[in-house]
Design brief:
- With 388 residues, the protein is an alpha/beta fold.
- It has two domains: 101 residues, no CATH class; 261 residues, Alpha-Beta Barrel (TIM Barrel).
- It is built from 13 helices and 13 strands.
- The strands form two sheets. The chain has an eight-stranded parallel beta sheet with strand order 11-10-9-8-7-6-13-12. Strands 1, 2, 3, 4 and 5 form a five-stranded mixed beta sheet that branches.
- Helix 5 links the parallel strand 6 and strand 7.
């Protein structure tokens, strides 16, 4: 109960949508945020959109029928007011032409169809299986350390229902020792090549440009960088030239060793969004089209358990970018911090709870260790949503 109360404190509740905007010199994108709420699926979603009472998410099976308008406070924090979808549209039209354009543009980004990412259709939830070719990852270090064990683990995850395999050769847990790009490349390239030759969609989890280049050449279709292409000066150019799809993750700072030292935010969900916006802009300037991008809120990377809970409680904010959203919560420490201190292998129930909340918020990709269990949960969720 204490955690739930703290999640609510991320935003100050307001009884009504704000009035009398003074928009001169205001950057609306850094002042006003739209959080889709009252998300429905199946026939309810279709009926709401047809009647003008709702709006689609990613032109898919979900739609939202209410919106929380979140307004930043200059002194820190933010005010939140919830209104039916139609009321929000009418409010924007009455308030100011600039506000009307901003809301309209935001809604169209939220609602537009997400293109295939890494060759994978984004019209239904996708499970990404984790293969750590490392001796020291926080949850499964050493289990797939070596080319043959890693290939075997990946094939088992595909058999269990994973659509994408995310291969990593360096642990990015807090305090982990860095691995040289040369050693990381030695660990992962044979694994990536073997999987790609079998037609498996491979993502490479790396923050080093050299490893990005080598693994894309070996067949990886996706670059998944925990630093959002900010950790290596060559990453932006390398990713742009590769033609691969890219996942930009949010992390406070660019060094996993120090990210948990003392993370602070004025408002964690909104600061995370603003920083991701900057990384998207940097990627686009480097020549990476937005259609190649996916975003990840970076749960556990430079965030306390409370920051994580606040972000998880407002995940639908991430649809503002018009990109697929990847959620990575698998076995992470926030589960034990918000529960009873369970070790990584005993965090599956909390992981599933967070992932199902992510599906309810419209997340397209779930990155997990426990593929079979997650696939089963996703299928039940889909059946329930389709029958709504």
């Amino acid at each position: 109960m204490a955690a739930v109360a703290t999640v609510a404190s991320a935003f100050h509740r307001s009884p009504a949508l704000p009035r009398g905007f003074a928009l001169e010199g205001v950057d609306l994108a850094r002042s006003l945020y739209l959080l889709p709420t009252a998300i429905v699926g199946g026939e309810q979603a279709a009926a709401a959109v047809i009647a003008g009472h709702g709006w689609p998410i990613g032109d898919g099976a979900l739609a939202f029928t209410a919106v929380a308008a979140i307004l930043r406070r200059p002194e820190g924090g933010a005010d939140l007011a919830v209104a039916p979808f139609a009321e929000l549209v009418n409010w924007a039209e009455r308030e100011h032409p600039d506000l009307c354009r901003y809301v309209s543009d935001s809604l169209h980004r939220i609602g537009r169809r997400r293109p295939a990412w890494g060759g994978v259709a984004m019209d239904a939830p996708v499970v990404m299986g984790i293969v750590n070719v490392t001796p020291d990852s926080f949850s499964d270090g050493g289990e797939a350390f070596g080319t043959e064990p890693a290939i075997a683990r990946a094939l088992a995850l595909v058999e269990a229902g994973a659509t994408i395999i995310d291969v990593g050769g360096e642990s990015t847990r807090p305090g982990a020792d860095p691995v040289s790009p040369e050693e990381e490349e030695r660990r992962v390239v044979p694994v990536v090549r073997a999987l790609a030759e079998r037609g498996i969609v491979v993502s490479i989890d790396t923050r080093h440009a050299r490893v990005m280049e080598a693994t894309v050449a070996a067949g990886a279709r996706i670059i998944n960088d925990v630093t959002g292409l900010a950790g290596d000066p060559q990453s932006l150019a390398t990713a742009a030239a590769s033609g691969a799809a890219v996942c930009l993750m949010h992390m406070l700072g660019d060094d996993p060793r120090t990210m948990q030292a003392d993370p602070r935010y004025a408002c964690a969900p909104l600061d995370m969004l603003d920083q991701l916006e900057e990384r998207i802009a940097a990627a686009e300037r480097a020549g990476i089209d937005r259609a190649r991008l996916c975003v990840d809120p970076g749960i556990g990377f430079g965030k306390t358990a409370i920051h994580n809970a606040q972000i998880l409680g407002s995940l639908a904010l991430l649809h503002r970018f018009g990109c697929p959203v990847l959620l990575g919560v698998s076995r992470k420490s926030f589960v034990s911090h918000l529960s009873q201190g369970e070790p990584p292998r005993q965090r599956l129930p909390g992981t599933l709870a967070a992932n199902l909340a992510g599906l309810d918020a419209g997340m397209q990709i779930l990155r997990v260790h426990d593929v079979a269990e997650t696939v089963q949960a996703v299928r039940i969720w889909q059946a329930m949503r389709a029958g709504a």
